[in-house]
């Protein structure tokens, strides 16, 4: 943690209605990205910030925007008094919704209005709210352009542009859309760009979009989170699956996302794991919306323990207390590693990221280590010869959930698996709160419980996530 975390929100000079909302959210101390970005953004500087999801980056850009717009806020019902003044672009619906939820929370004691628009839903449902006027619009690029075409919004008074997860936007091919949007915005504006990785493309994007930006990094560029313990095993490709089963058995009480490179291998692996009595599901672009929602809800509820996911499908999954990520197949794009392991160790919590490297993947792993400027400890995988062959039948109830017959999410959870791994989750949430070095207040505790307990709002989000992925992920997926 940087020394800047000792600064409190009041010292950052934020307005009272925002401090009240921050307090009610249970935040006591700015995260490092907030401590760095907020004062600079309040000075109306363009920023290029290296920060992953989970670092508190949303508040880092939302709070200074809300603070600056506050004098312009109006209780009038006239739409003319509520022009779009800040545009936040996010690559996926899920992220857009998450950002919007945060902005709404921080703005709740102001008259500033916000809205989120994204594709995959009837555009007509978004138009009436747009017409009433909103100061802060969060949007996915495609749907924003749909609205522009339908003349249902005007961007002529935009003073702030935020590009969130800019690297993902480029990966998903949004550059042409971004260029079109940029051409519609007033030249005089403040730009804030956030990206987990800094590739040459990102630097080019920054050159095109930002005006003499200040660079902030909460860690080294492309660095991986220090809260995540990273390790790797060297394993023959023909033994990989067996070793994975062994690992899943070893980490039987931890929920895990297992990453594969392609939709096909995600499906194949999930089927194989199911045959090994591991409660799991695949989540990727070929799955129906219903299947995705079910898989994600079951994972969040703890009835499945492994989610096998492709990079695109896992993007933006808001599972804040995920303790373990396994890279079953090493991505050929080293940036993916940073994103994958960013699924764990979020917001100060501890996490573990394990990579399984086979004979064809060592060169890709070298590239990853070059990118993150770190050597990951590697050991040879030891395959436990006593472990059951895939087709064996579970016989003993005391051997853990992985030996129990797989039950679909709708059915009762296996006996050994708590329907909600609440204790484990609570522990991680406590670590999350402790990790920022702030004291848990009653509000934080309640918030943490809400997060851990999958209350209805979270369930709704889970559905949103799955829907978002169906639309956003399919086209981009390999
Ligand atoms: P983000 O990186 O914006 O997705 O934020 C990650 C999580 O950290 C969200 O659940 C935020 O509500 C939470 N958060 C953001 N800032 C703080 C803070 N200063 N103190 C505690 N939690 C925070």
Describe the structure.
- It is a single chain.
- With 478 residues, this protein is α/β, with parallel strands linked by helices.
- The protein has helices at 16-24, 32-42, 57-69, 93-106, 127-132, 141-149, 166-171, 175-184, 200-209, 240-250, 263-275, 289-301, 311-314, 334-341, 362-372, 422-435, 442-453, 456-476; strands spanning 47-50, 86-89, 114-117, 136-139, 160-163, 190-195, 214-217, 228-234, 256-260, 280-283, 306-310, 324-327, 351-357, 378-380.
- The protein folds into 3 domains: 9-217, 3-Layer(aba) Sandwich (Rossmann fold), CATH 3.40.50.300; 228-386, P-loop containing nucleotide triphosphate hydrolases (Rossmann fold, 3-Layer(aba) Sandwich), CATH 3.40.50.300; 423-477, no CATH class.
- 41% of the residues lie in helices and 14% in strands.
- The strands form 2 sheets. The protein has a 7-stranded parallel sheet with strand order 3-4-2-5-6-1-7, sandwiched between helices.
- α5 links the parallel β3 and β4 (136-139).
- The chain is globular, with a radius of gyration of 22 Å.
- It starts with 15 loop residues before the first helix and ends with a helix.
- It binds adenosine monophosphate.
- Adenosine monophosphate is lined by residues 27, 29-31, 34, 53-59, 347, 436.
What keywords describe this structure?
alpha/beta, Rossmann fold, 3 domains, 7-stranded parallel beta sheet, 18 helices, 14% strand, binds adenosine monophosphate
């Amino acid at each position: 943690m940087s020394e800047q975390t000792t600064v409190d929100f009041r010292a950052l000079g934020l307005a009272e209605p925002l401090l009240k909302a921050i307090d009610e959210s249970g935040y006591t101390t700015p995260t490092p990205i907030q401590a760095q970005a907020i004062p600079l953004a309040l000075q109306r500087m363009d920023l290029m910030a290296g920060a992953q999801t989970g670092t508190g980056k949303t508040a880092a850009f939302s709070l200074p925007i809300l603070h600056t717009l506050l004098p312009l806020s109006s209780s009038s019902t006239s739409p003319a008094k509520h022009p779009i003044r800040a545009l936040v672009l996010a690559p996926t619906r899920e992220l857009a919704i998450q950002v919007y939820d945060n902005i709404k929370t921080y703005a709740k004691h102001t008259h500033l209005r916000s809205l989120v628009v994204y594709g995959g839903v009837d555009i007509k449902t978004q138009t009436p709210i747009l017409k009433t006027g909103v100061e802060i619009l969060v949007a996915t690029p495609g749907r924003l352009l749909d609205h522009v075409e339908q003349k249902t919004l005007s961007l002529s008074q935009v003073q702030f542009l935020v590009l969130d997860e800019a690297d993902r936007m480029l990966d998903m091919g949004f550059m042409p859309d971004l260029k079109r949007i940029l051409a519609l915005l007033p030249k005089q504006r403040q730009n804030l760009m956030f990206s987990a990785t800094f590739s040459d493309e990102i630097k080019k994007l920054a050159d095109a979009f930002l005006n003499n930006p200040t660079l902030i990094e909460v860690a080294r560029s492309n660095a991986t989170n220090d809260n995540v313990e990273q390790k790797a095993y060297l394993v023959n490709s023909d033994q990989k699956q067996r070793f994975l089963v062994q690992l899943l058995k070893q980490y039987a009480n931890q929920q895990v996302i297992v990453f594969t490179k392609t939709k096909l291998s995600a499906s194949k692996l999930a089927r194989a794991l199911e045959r090994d009595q591991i409660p799991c599901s695949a989540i990727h672009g070929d799955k129906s919306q219903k299947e995705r929602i079910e898989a994600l809800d079951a994972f969040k509820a703890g009835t499945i323990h492994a989610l096998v996911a492709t990079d695109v499908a896992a993007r933006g999954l808001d599972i804040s207390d995920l303790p373990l990520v396994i890279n079953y197949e090493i991505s050929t794009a080293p940036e993916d590693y940073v994103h994958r392991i960013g699924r764990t160790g979020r917001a100060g919590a501890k996490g573990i990221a394990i990579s399984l490297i086979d004979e064809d993947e060592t060169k890709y792993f070298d590239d990853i280590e070059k990118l993150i400027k770190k050597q990951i400890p590697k050991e040879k995988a030891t395959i436990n010869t006593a472990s059951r062959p895939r087709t064996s039948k579970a016989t003993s109830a005391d051997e853990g959930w992985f030996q129990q017959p797989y039950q679909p999410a709708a059915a009762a959870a296996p006996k050994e698996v708590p329907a909600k791994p609440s204790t484990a989750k609570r522990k991680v949430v406590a670590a999350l709160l402790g990790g920022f070095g702030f004291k848990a207040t009653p509000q934080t505790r309640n918030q943490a419980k809400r997060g851990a307990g999958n209350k209805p709002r979270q369930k709704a989000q889970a559905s949103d996530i799955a829907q978002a992925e169906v639309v956003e992920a399919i086209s981009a997926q390999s």
